[in-house]
Write a structure and sequence with these properties.
By secondary structure, the chain is an alpha/beta fold. The protein has 3 domains: 93 residues, Arc Repressor Mutant, subunit A, CATH 1.10.10.10; 109 residues, D-Maltodextrin-Binding Protein, domain 2 (3-Layer(aba) Sandwich), CATH 3.40.190; 89 residues, Periplasmic binding protein-like II (D-Maltodextrin-Binding Protein, domain 2, 3-Layer(aba) Sandwich). 41% of the residues lie in helices and 23% in strands. It contains 12 helices and 11 strands.
Length: 298
């Protein structure tokens, strides 16, 4: 197979992100025919159809999704090549100096509580680094999907085996454990019988790997109220609307309006870690961030 040139990779990404050849051409300052010719050439080199063409535009096939994700990751390496080379060429005393953009995807409570202190130390040590943080819901592919698709250099994700990222990695990703956190029962402060309250739940709750524990608890009713995120659930509990079962990171926002009760040694535990690609794991920026995240969770 002939190799795809950087400009061909950029065209594939542009078509996928804009949804059509004309829009991609406008973004890149090319003609539509040039974009169409390039995509056909890329498909010939790859040996697969990468886009479904239709009246409303173009959408990636399964092969196209994979190719576009890898294209983003390859183009990202081109972007960091200069900074990495300059860092490696420094004297031994400051060889690990990091600079440039570092793209991070994290679910809400990790973005609120795990990342800020780690990024504070990271940017203090490396003033030339520019973190870009996106909050991504842990639904479907979640933060790991952002990394696999080349939209993030590192993601903070849940690593439990049945969750969004199987431990040990998927789709060529590398994972590492940062912390284990227990779930707890949270209920309105002073309530005489919190277990009698309705159960509040949220879309991202990692029920997939706590299901066995939940099913074994005859006191837990089916969720009667669902919210968009754990912060909303916590606020609703504080308003007396029900009780909830939340992990420790979510409970860092708890106020005096709620009481927190542990669930004992058999209660569910969430494993939180980082997700990255093999190529990103070797870069100075990602390595430095992982060090700070590990320092934060010791």
């Amino acid at each position: 197979m002939s190799e795809l040139a950087p400009h061909e990779l950029r065209i594939l990404v542009a078509v996928a992100e804009t949804g059509g050849f004309s829009a991609a051409a406008a973004r890149l300052g090319l003609t539509q025919s040039a974009v169409s010719h390039s995509v056909r050439g890329s498909e010939a080199k790859v040996g697969a159809v990468l886009f479904e063409r239709g009246r409303t535009g173009a959408s990636p096939t399964a092969a196209g999704e994979r190719a576009v994700g890898l294209a983003r990751r390859i183009l990202r390496l081109y972007e960091v090549l200069g900074a990495e080379a300059r860092g490696a060429g420094r004297t031994a005393a400051d060889q690990d100096v990091v600079e440039g953009v570092l793209r991070i995807a994290a679910f809400r409570s990790a973005a609120l509580h795990l990342l800020p202190p780690a990024l504070e130390r990271l940017t203090a040590r490396h003033p030339g680094i520019r973190p870009e943080v996106r909050v991504v819901r842990e639904l479907g592919a979640g933060t790991a999907g952002e990394v696999a698709a080349g939209r993030a250099d590192l993601g903070i994700a849940t690593l439990n085996a049945a969750g969004p990222v199987p431990e040990g990695g998927a789709a060529g990703l590398l994972t590492g454990l940062l912390r284990e956190e227990a779930y707890a029962l949270v209920h309105p402060a002073g309530h005489p019988d919190p277990k009698a309250l309705p159960l509040l739940d949220w879309d991202e709750n990692c029920g997939s790997y706590t299901r066995d524990w939940w099913q074994a608890q005859d006191w837990i009713p089916r969720a009667t109220v669902k919210a968009e995120d754990d912060g909303m659930v916590l606020t609703m509990v504080g308003r007396g609307l029900g009780m909830a079962i939340l992990p420790e990171l979510s409970l860092r926002e708890a106020t005096d309006a709620v009481d927190i009760t542990g669930l004992g040694p058999s209660g569910p535990v969430r494993r939180v870690g980082y997700v990255t690609t093999p190529e990103s794991a070797a870069t100075l920026g990602v390595r430095a961030l992982i060090r700070e995240l590990r320092s934060e969770t010791r």
